[in-house]
Design a protein that fits this description.
By secondary structure, this protein is an all-alpha fold. It contains 10 helices and no strands. Helix 4 packs antiparallel against helix 5. It starts with a helix and ends in a 7-residue tail after the last helix. GO terms for molecular function: hydrolase activity. InterPro entries: HD/PDEase_dom, HD_domain. This is Putative HD superfamily hydrolase. It comes from secondary endosymbiont of Heteropsylla cubana.
Protein backbone atom coordinates (compact mmCIF):
# COMPACT_ATOMS: atom_id res chain seq x y z
CA UNK A 1 0.00 0.00 0.00
CA UNK A 2 1.13 3.53 -0.73
CA UNK A 3 1.34 6.25 1.88
CA UNK A 4 -1.84 7.78 0.47
CA UNK A 5 -3.58 4.40 0.76
CA UNK A 6 -2.69 4.19 4.44
CA UNK A 7 -3.87 7.75 4.98
CA UNK A 8 -7.24 6.94 3.39
CA UNK A 9 -7.58 3.80 5.52
CA UNK A 10 -6.81 5.66 8.73
CA UNK A 11 -9.28 8.43 7.90
CA UNK A 12 -11.99 5.90 7.07
CA UNK A 13 -11.42 4.15 10.40
CA UNK A 14 -11.52 7.41 12.36
CA UNK A 15 -14.67 8.62 10.62
CA UNK A 16 -16.40 5.41 11.66
CA UNK A 17 -15.07 4.93 15.19
CA UNK A 18 -13.58 8.14 16.55
CA UNK A 19 -15.90 10.30 18.65
CA UNK A 20 -15.03 13.96 18.10
CA UNK A 21 -15.90 15.36 21.50
CA UNK A 22 -13.34 18.14 21.29
CA UNK A 23 -13.35 20.01 17.98
CA UNK A 24 -9.85 21.34 18.64
CA UNK A 25 -8.60 17.73 18.59
CA UNK A 26 -10.73 16.27 15.81
CA UNK A 27 -9.93 14.42 12.58
CA UNK A 28 -9.26 17.74 10.87
CA UNK A 29 -6.60 18.40 13.51
CA UNK A 30 -5.00 15.02 12.81
CA UNK A 31 -4.93 15.83 9.11
CA UNK A 32 -3.35 19.26 9.65
CA UNK A 33 -0.69 17.77 11.93
CA UNK A 34 0.13 15.26 9.20
CA UNK A 35 0.39 17.97 6.54
CA UNK A 36 2.73 19.98 8.75
CA UNK A 37 4.77 16.91 9.63
CA UNK A 38 5.11 16.08 5.95
CA UNK A 39 6.56 19.54 5.29
CA UNK A 40 8.99 19.19 8.18
CA UNK A 41 10.26 15.75 7.21
CA UNK A 42 11.02 16.58 3.58
CA UNK A 43 14.64 15.81 2.71
CA UNK A 44 15.13 13.81 5.95
CA UNK A 45 15.54 10.09 6.57
CA UNK A 46 12.37 9.89 8.69
CA UNK A 47 10.12 6.89 8.14
CA UNK A 48 7.04 8.39 6.48
CA UNK A 49 4.67 5.60 7.50
CA UNK A 50 5.63 5.94 11.16
CA UNK A 51 5.09 9.70 11.08
CA UNK A 52 1.79 9.39 9.21
CA UNK A 53 0.41 6.82 11.63
CA UNK A 54 1.47 8.73 14.73
CA UNK A 55 -0.11 11.92 13.38
CA UNK A 56 -3.46 10.25 12.79
CA UNK A 57 -3.61 8.49 16.16
CA UNK A 58 -1.72 10.82 18.50
CA UNK A 59 -4.92 12.09 20.13
CA UNK A 60 -6.99 8.93 19.83
CA UNK A 61 -7.24 9.26 23.61
CA UNK A 62 -7.71 12.91 24.48
CA UNK A 63 -8.46 14.15 27.97
CA UNK A 64 -9.60 17.72 28.75
CA UNK A 65 -6.87 20.20 29.67
CA UNK A 66 -8.20 20.35 33.24
CA UNK A 67 -8.48 16.56 33.71
CA UNK A 68 -6.30 15.22 36.57
CA UNK A 69 -4.92 12.50 34.27
CA UNK A 70 -4.20 14.83 31.37
CA UNK A 71 -0.46 14.08 31.59
CA UNK A 72 -1.23 10.40 30.95
CA UNK A 73 -3.34 10.91 27.83
CA UNK A 74 -0.55 10.40 25.29
CA UNK A 75 0.58 7.17 26.96
CA UNK A 76 -2.99 5.89 26.82
CA UNK A 77 -3.27 7.01 23.21
CA UNK A 78 -0.12 5.04 22.36
CA UNK A 79 -1.54 1.88 23.94
CA UNK A 80 -4.85 2.37 22.12
CA UNK A 81 -3.11 3.04 18.80
CA UNK A 82 -1.04 -0.15 19.03
CA UNK A 83 -4.21 -2.15 19.72
CA UNK A 84 -6.02 -0.51 16.80
CA UNK A 85 -3.17 -1.24 14.41
CA UNK A 86 -3.03 -4.89 15.49
CA UNK A 87 -6.78 -5.47 15.32
CA UNK A 88 -7.90 -3.30 12.40
CA UNK A 89 -4.77 -3.01 10.26
CA UNK A 90 -3.15 -6.48 10.32
CA UNK A 91 -1.01 -5.65 7.27
CA UNK A 92 0.62 -2.72 9.05
CA UNK A 93 4.30 -3.61 9.73
CA UNK A 94 4.66 -4.74 13.36
CA UNK A 95 8.27 -3.57 13.29
CA UNK A 96 6.97 0.03 13.23
CA UNK A 97 4.81 -0.33 16.35
CA UNK A 98 7.48 0.89 18.77
CA UNK A 99 8.33 3.91 16.65
CA UNK A 100 4.68 4.88 16.31
CA UNK A 101 3.90 4.47 20.00
CA UNK A 102 6.96 6.45 21.09
CA UNK A 103 6.06 9.31 18.73
CA UNK A 104 2.54 9.35 20.16
CA UNK A 105 3.73 9.27 23.77
CA UNK A 106 6.29 12.03 23.23
CA UNK A 107 4.06 14.45 21.32
CA UNK A 108 2.31 15.74 24.43
CA UNK A 109 3.53 18.88 26.19
CA UNK A 110 2.01 17.82 29.52
CA UNK A 111 3.50 14.30 29.37
CA UNK A 112 7.03 15.69 29.46
CA UNK A 113 8.52 12.81 27.46
CA UNK A 114 11.62 13.64 25.42
CA UNK A 115 11.39 12.48 21.79
CA UNK A 116 14.23 10.07 21.10
CA UNK A 117 13.71 9.43 17.38
CA UNK A 118 13.57 11.73 14.38
CA UNK A 119 9.99 10.64 13.74
CA UNK A 120 8.95 11.55 17.28
CA UNK A 121 10.64 14.95 17.01
CA UNK A 122 8.80 15.68 13.77
CA UNK A 123 5.41 14.69 15.18
CA UNK A 124 5.98 16.74 18.32
CA UNK A 125 6.92 19.83 16.30
CA UNK A 126 3.97 19.41 13.94
CA UNK A 127 1.51 19.10 16.81
CA UNK A 128 2.94 22.11 18.64
CA UNK A 129 2.73 24.22 15.52
CA UNK A 130 -1.04 23.72 15.78
CA UNK A 131 -0.85 25.98 18.84
CA UNK A 132 0.74 28.87 16.93
CA UNK A 133 -0.42 31.18 14.16
CA UNK A 134 -4.05 31.76 13.19
CA UNK A 135 -5.11 28.14 13.73
CA UNK A 136 -3.48 28.10 17.13
CA UNK A 137 -5.31 31.26 18.10
CA UNK A 138 -8.67 29.80 17.06
CA UNK A 139 -8.02 26.53 18.89
CA UNK A 140 -6.85 28.33 22.04
CA UNK A 141 -10.04 30.32 22.52
CA UNK A 142 -12.20 27.36 21.51
CA UNK A 143 -10.67 25.25 24.28
CA UNK A 144 -10.81 28.13 26.74
CA UNK A 145 -14.53 28.51 26.05
CA UNK A 146 -15.09 24.79 26.57
CA UNK A 147 -13.42 25.02 29.96
CA UNK A 148 -15.40 28.11 30.96
CA UNK A 149 -12.35 30.35 31.24
CA UNK A 150 -12.53 34.12 30.91
CA UNK A 151 -11.01 35.56 27.74
CA UNK A 152 -8.56 37.76 29.66
CA UNK A 153 -8.07 39.70 32.89
CA UNK A 154 -9.86 42.94 32.10
CA UNK A 155 -7.69 45.21 34.26
CA UNK A 156 -4.29 43.61 33.71
CA UNK A 157 -4.34 41.44 30.55
CA UNK A 158 -0.54 41.04 30.39
CA UNK A 159 -0.24 40.15 34.09
CA UNK A 160 2.14 43.01 34.83
CA UNK A 161 0.92 43.32 38.43
CA UNK A 162 -0.40 39.83 39.15
CA UNK A 163 0.56 36.21 38.75
CA UNK A 164 -0.21 34.49 35.46
CA UNK A 165 -3.28 32.27 35.75
CA UNK A 166 -4.22 30.42 32.59
CA UNK A 167 -6.66 28.22 34.49
CA UNK A 168 -8.94 31.24 34.69
CA UNK A 169 -7.77 33.50 31.85
CA UNK A 170 -7.23 32.10 28.36
CA UNK A 171 -5.05 35.05 27.32
CA UNK A 172 -2.55 34.17 30.06
CA UNK A 173 -1.80 30.94 28.19
CA UNK A 174 0.17 32.95 25.65
CA UNK A 175 2.81 33.62 28.29
CA UNK A 176 2.60 30.39 30.29
CA UNK A 177 3.08 28.18 27.23
CA UNK A 178 2.66 29.47 23.68
CA UNK A 179 5.47 32.03 23.67
CA UNK A 180 7.86 29.36 24.94
CA UNK A 181 7.19 26.90 22.10
CA UNK A 182 9.55 28.27 19.41
CA UNK A 183 12.55 27.61 21.63
CA UNK A 184 11.32 24.09 22.39
CA UNK A 185 11.09 22.91 18.80
CA UNK A 186 13.08 19.78 17.97
CA UNK A 187 13.82 20.29 14.26
CA UNK A 188 15.33 23.19 12.35
CA UNK A 189 12.33 23.37 10.01
CA UNK A 190 9.97 23.32 12.96
CA UNK A 191 11.87 26.12 14.68
CA UNK A 192 11.74 28.27 11.57
CA UNK A 193 7.98 27.76 11.18
CA UNK A 194 7.37 28.40 14.89
CA UNK A 195 9.42 31.62 14.94
CA UNK A 196 7.40 32.87 11.98
CA UNK A 197 4.01 32.01 13.47
CA UNK A 198 4.75 33.36 16.94
CA UNK A 199 4.92 36.85 15.42
CA UNK A 200 1.22 36.57 14.56
CA UNK A 201 0.36 35.84 18.18
CA UNK A 202 2.51 38.71 19.45
CA UNK A 203 0.76 41.07 17.04
CA UNK A 204 -2.60 39.79 18.30
CA UNK A 205 -1.54 40.38 21.90
CA UNK A 206 -0.53 43.95 21.17
CA UNK A 207 -3.73 44.61 19.20
CA UNK A 208 -5.94 43.27 21.97
CA UNK A 209 -4.17 45.39 24.60
CA UNK A 210 -4.55 48.49 22.43
CA UNK A 211 -8.26 47.85 21.91
CA UNK A 212 -8.81 47.43 25.64
CA UNK A 213 -7.54 51.01 25.99
CA UNK A 214 -9.87 52.21 23.24
CA UNK A 215 -7.13 52.49 20.61
CA UNK A 216 -8.45 50.79 17.50
CA UNK A 217 -5.98 51.92 14.85
CA UNK A 218 -2.67 51.00 16.41
CA UNK A 219 -0.82 48.32 18.35
CA UNK A 220 0.28 48.38 21.96
CA UNK A 221 3.97 49.32 21.81
CA UNK A 222 4.59 48.03 25.31
CA UNK A 223 3.45 44.54 24.37
CA UNK A 224 5.52 44.55 21.20
CA UNK A 225 8.63 45.65 23.07
CA UNK A 226 8.13 43.14 25.89
CA UNK A 227 7.54 40.10 23.73
CA UNK A 228 9.38 40.99 20.54
CA UNK A 229 12.30 43.39 20.87
CA UNK A 230 13.49 41.96 24.17
CA UNK A 231 12.86 38.33 23.22
CA UNK A 232 15.16 37.72 20.29
CA UNK A 233 14.40 33.98 20.22
CA UNK A 234 11.12 34.81 18.51
CA UNK A 235 12.92 36.40 15.58
CA UNK A 236 15.84 34.07 14.88
Amino acid sequence: MTLEDWKSCFEAYLEQYFLEGDKAHDIAHFNRVWKTAYKIMQFTDADEKTVLTACYFHDIVNLPKNHPDRHLASRRAAIRARKILAEHFPSFPAKLYDGVTHAIEAHSFSAGIDPKTLEAKIVQDADRLESLGAIGLARLFHVGGQLGRSLFHIEDPLAQHRYLDDLNYTFDHFQTKLLTLPNRMQTEKGKKMAHHNINYLITFMSKLCAELRGEYYQLDKGALEKFSLNKEIYYK
